[in-house]
Amino acid sequence: MPPSATSAVAAAALPLSRSLVAIPRRTLFCPVPASKRKYPLKKQLLVADYRKSILSTPAVILAQTPNLSEKEWDALRSALRQKGIGLRSVSNGVFGVAAETLSESTAKLVPHLQGHNAVFYQLPVLPPPSPDAPQKLAANFAAARKPRVPAQVEPPTIKDVIDNVVKAKKVQIVAGVLNGTYYDAKAIAHFSTLPSMAQLRAELVAVLGAPAQRLSSLLGQQQMSLVALLGQRVKDLEAPSAGEAAEAKPAA
């Protein structure tokens, strides 16, 4: 090829190369979203298990356990299981995929997946027995008493988690999702100090019932005063006056 033709081809290719350099790297190598990636069957099953067993519960607390021994792990898990809280070690990559593709709140846990991590989550509990449970058949009774995950997590439950974590000394809470809302470590600690819904309802009933009780007490006192006044008036009317008593003596 003549030198003039070579220079012409190079001159024509120069703008194209400059345009490729000008394209941002993010445009050239755009990562595939986690929801559209294809994973092996084993990984898909583990992602589904993380979603159903852990991330779908009302309490998901991510913690780092770098130096926790097997004996300490078993002791912590046994203590929390009695409180209705499960403890499970998770794979950072698979758990990150499950959290990222479930909701915006759980996706915020992904940046904290570093090192050796474990997750505290709400365990299914038995619902309270119904009044007509003894009249049911055994099969229906067993189905009615099937363990279920509570709809919401109460602050006392999170306080139990924090108390056991403090005793373990080698576990550090980093973040969590409580009742569908993302919390950092400080917010989780503050959440554990709040009263439970039962306590709030009791306080609300007491506040709403205080004026009625005060009004009832005032009305009761007034009624008692009125009854006492009427009783005294009846006694005064029935008792003879001083003049009548003086007139009655000579007649006698």
From TrEMBL:
The UniProt record lists the keyword Ribosomal protein: yes
Q: Which UniProt keywords apply?
A: Ribonucleoprotein, Ribosomal protein
Concerning InterPro entries, the annotation shows: Ribosomal_uL10, Ribosomal_uL10-like_sf, Ribosomal_uL10_bac_type
State the Gene3D superfamilies in the record: 3.30.70.1730
Q: Which GO terms describe its cellular component?
A: ribonucleoprotein complex; ribosome
Origin, by domain of life?
Eukaryota
An example of a Pfam family matching this protein is: Ribosomal_L10
Query: According to its UniProt record, which protein family does this protein belong to?
Result: Belongs to the universal ribosomal protein uL10 family.
Please report the name of this protein according to its UniProt entry. Ribosomal protein L10-domain-containing protein
